TrEMBL record:
Segments traversing the membrane: 9-30
Superkingdom of origin organism: Bacteria
Keywords, alphabetical: Membrane, Transmembrane, Transmembrane helix
The protein, known as: DUF3139 domain-containing protein
Record flagged with keyword Transmembrane: yes
């Protein structure tokens, strides 16, 4: 009886590790595919999550693509916290994968904190920009 329980736990652990490994591999694949199959949009910074004193923190943002709202996140070093806190509510350029379901399941968005969106730009086109907008060059 104990052998069967050990075997079931072994299969369960192997299955869980396989799922985690598959997710990591797919995330890497789609992250790389974003370099070739992408769009640009406008992201609004919404909040900062403080993870700890000795690690990175995470900023969260929202962006629109094909009339849907998506959430993204970006990690930054602790020494930049005051800079990012002052940027909450501001808009920046974000690079996203062209496939909507990839954006929902995987973390493929890249925030360009050094490319603020001018006040004259209220939002990106629904399908995003295929090329880097002229104001961001």
């Amino acid at each position: 009886m104990k052998e069967i329980k050990k075997n079931k736990w072994g299969i369960f652990v192997f299955f869980c590790l396989s799922l985690v490994t598959l997710y990591i591999v797919l995330n890497n694949y789609f992250d790389n595919s974003t370099k070739e199959d992408f769009r640009y949009s406008v992201a609004t910074l919404t909040e900062i999550n403080f993870i700890g004193k000795s690690s990175s923190n995470k900023i969260k943002f929202n962006y629109y693509y094909n009339k849907n709202v998506y959430k993204g996140s970006y990690y930054f070093d602790n020494d930049s916290t005051s800079y990012y806190e002052s940027k909450i509510g501001e808009k920046f350029l974000v690079k996203i994968n062209n496939n909507e379901w990839v954006n929902k399941l995987f973390s493929t968005s890249r925030l360009y904190i050094n490319k603020p969106v001018p006040d004259s730009i209220k939002e990106a086109p629904s399908e995003g920009w295929k090329d880097l907008p002229t104001w961001a060059k």
